[in-house]
Amino acid sequence: MESMTLLAEDVGFVEGPVARPDGSLAVTSITHASVYILSPTGDRRRVETGGGPNGMVAGPDGALLVAQNGGLFGGAAGTAPGIQRIRDGEVDHLVVLEDGAAPNDLCFGPDGWLYFTDTHGDWAGVGPAPIGRLYACRADGSELMMLFEGFRFMNGLAFDVTGESLFVVETARPRIWRFPWTPGPTVGDPEEFCRVADGNPDGIALDTSGSLWVAATMDGSVQVFDRHGVRTARHSIGEGSMPSNCCFGLANPSVLYVTAAGIEQVLALQTDVLGAPLYEAA
Predict the structure, then answer these.
(1) Residue 171 located in a structural domain
(2) For the segment 99-128, what is each residue's pLDDT rounded down to a tens digit?
């Protein structure tokens, strides 16, 4: 890393960064029950979502799609768990799940479908974590299907640069799994990709080489694993920073944006790699 810049502070338990083509950055704040849009000039705009907005991804027609956990992890009560859409400042639900569900993170796949994890409950890091689920649906929320159930506290997810595999984080153990993927959508039996020994993994991003950048919460770092699952670098964000997620920029794809939930900050890290292009909605 060459440098680290503070982009925003006092944004609560911040998560779900989404880089936008105009150089702005959208982030969620679970404890503020809101999404913040951060402009390149430092201005911010707030959209209230209620509940606990967790992961987020750019949707079609300029929309933002939010994994709404329903108010867990310091969020607000009164909003159903599911997938929310923010468009022109208006918030609605594309997917509503039953009580007890807690969508955590989401991404689009090579087929243009939306994939998301569900921790299926709260967990404070003590005792057994709940068994999570992996879902897929179309970009408009239709044809919802559960693809997998079985990991403890399913968290971040991302498709690899080849489009042949889906990485899924299991925070509680802590490790990252790789599912073979085929259109349908269908996932095969997962295989262990790597273990994050120094800190519980959360959100993830990929660079163009296929390396995985992992927000390691309790380690206060972003760790990098090559295509073989070997750790090649550790970038300290600071003690108590609790990095919750990360994404590469669009206007400048060598910048990694990091949400540091423990200190309520959003940071920009200049790297010597380029972020991999993200898959988009069909």
Answers:
(1) yes
(2) 789 999 999 999 999 999 999 987 777 778
Cis peptide before 201 (omega within 30 of 0): no
Asked whether 116 and 67 are in contact (CB, 8 A), the reply is: yes
d(CA 207, CA 163): 13
d(CA 253, CA 274): 5
How far is 29 from 210, CA to CA, in rounded Å?
A: 29
Domain that holds residue 124: 3-270
Give the domain CATH number at 161: 2.120.10.30
pTM of the model: 0.96
Q: Please list, in sequence order, all residues whose beta carbon lies within 8 angstroms of the beta carbon of residue 191, skipping any fewer than 6 positions away.
A: 177, 178
Phi first, then psi: give them for residue 220, nearest 5 degrees: 60, 40
Q: What 3-state DSSP class applies to 60?
A: helix
Number of domains in the chain: 1
